[in-house]
Design goal:
single chain; about 375 residues; alpha/beta; Rossmann fold; 4-stranded parallel sheet; globular
């Protein structure tokens, strides 16, 4: 059977795999980049390219070496260089003698090129879309539960084990009712994790470039690192929200592009591409909603995120909310990253204690 390679998008790989079943192709994807994948991508890519480009290029090279015939790459209409990545990756594959054709997801007519090429029947296509959408929403809900519980778990790793078991069941669910049944069971399964009810976890927002936010290899598993430090995180790239924005649904929802643009407007009026506007908007919201801090993840060489980094810092200064900037490339040290996160968590804990002492003194 024909195979189709898709770049790693974290746990959303389950939903993406379900979305291509109607095309009568075998999905070829992983939940995270591997060291070998990144090595292949770094060797083949321009040195100045950002980390997500190198990882995705390595993913396509590895797929082509295993006989995969097609790949699919997200597009961009903004100022981010992502809009050129598909053509550049196709050129790299051709120069290496690898026969893998990369489709872009953008429209150039009534249908996207990928759908037009495989021409699926409407019935099976819509059923696959329904399964993919339900799995996307299920992953969104599963991750929110994991973020909440991991910060207060008594035994390190319990939350991750429950999450992996839930993902296995979700991957095996073949119908919408089965997917919904899995989703309903999530809360009870996480409820079985022994937690420290007296602990008050810090609240920290994760924002920045989408691939880096979702690929746990590229971000050095930052969600678990922060959870282990007693931090309840909110990862602001949720594929369910992204799909609603792409298809112009949920105009009045909290995370619609209109609502995010309005939140960012006091600090950013221009469109800088990628998810940079969202980074500014979510920083503003975190400050308004009493988050203890924000961690901004930025691949080295990412033009949109580098452009708004000073703006994100200004929001932090204006509101008194700490902001930690983290840059990632293939040389990022895991030990150095852990050290910075531990120091940031210590600062946030001390800041909370100091504010409580001041509040107590004021009451006296």
């Amino acid at each position: 059977m024909t195979a189709l390679a898709m770049q790693p998008w974290g746990n959303y790989a389950l939903a993406l795999s379900a979305s291509v079943e109607c095309l009568r192709v075998t999905p070829w994807t992983r939940r995270a980049t591997t060291p070998e994948t990144l090595r292949l991508g770094v060797e083949a890519s321009p040195e100045s390219a950002c980390l997500p480009f190198k990882a995705c290029t390595g993913h396509f090279i590895q797929a082509a070496m295993e006989g995969v015939e097609y790949g699919v790459m997200v597009n961009s209409r903004g100022t981010c260089r992502l809009r050129y990545y598909r053509e550049l990756q196709q050129k790299i594959l051709k120069e290496r003698g690898l026969d893998l054709f990369v489709f872009g997801l953008g429209y150039d007519g009534v249908k996207p090129p990928l759908i037009r090429h495989f021409d699926p029947k409407p019935g099976p296509f819509l059923r696959c879309c329904a399964r993919a959408q339900q799995k996307t929403l299920a992953v969104d809900g599963l991750e929110r539960e994991a973020w909440r519980v991991r910060a207060v778990e008594r035994r390190r790793g319990d939350t991750t084990r429950i999450m992996e078991a839930c993902l296995t069941d979700l991957d095996q669910a073949r119908t919408v009712p089965q997917i919904r049944a899995c989703t309903r069971a999530f809360k009870a399964r996480f409820g079985a994790v022994a937690t420290d009810t007296g602990r008050e976890p810090l609240r920290v927002g994760l924002l920045g470039e989408a691939t880096l936010l979702r690929d746990r290899f590229l971000n050095h598993n930052i969600e678990e690192l922060l959870g282990g430090l007693g931090v309840e995180i909110s990862n602001f790239f949720l594929l369910g929200d992204e799909m609603r924005n792409i298809f112009r649904l949920g105009f009045f929802s909290r995370n619609s592009r209109w609502a995010l643009r309005r939140a960012a407007r006091p600090y950013l009026q221009a469109r800088v591409g990628g998810h940079a506007m969202e980074s500014v908007a979510h920083t503003v919201r975190c400050a308004r909603e009493g988050y203890d801090g924000v961690v901004h993840l930025c691949p080295s060489g990412c033009m949109p995120e580098i452009s708004v980094r000073p703006i994100v810092q200004k929001v932090g200064r204006d509101t008194g909310m700490p902001v930690l900037d983290l840059s990632f490339d293939e040389h990022t040290s895991h030990v150095g990253l852990v050290t910075r996160l531990e120091a940031f968590a210590d600062v946030l804990h001390e800041r909370r204690k100091r504010r409580r002492r001041m509040a107590h003194a004021d009451r006296r």
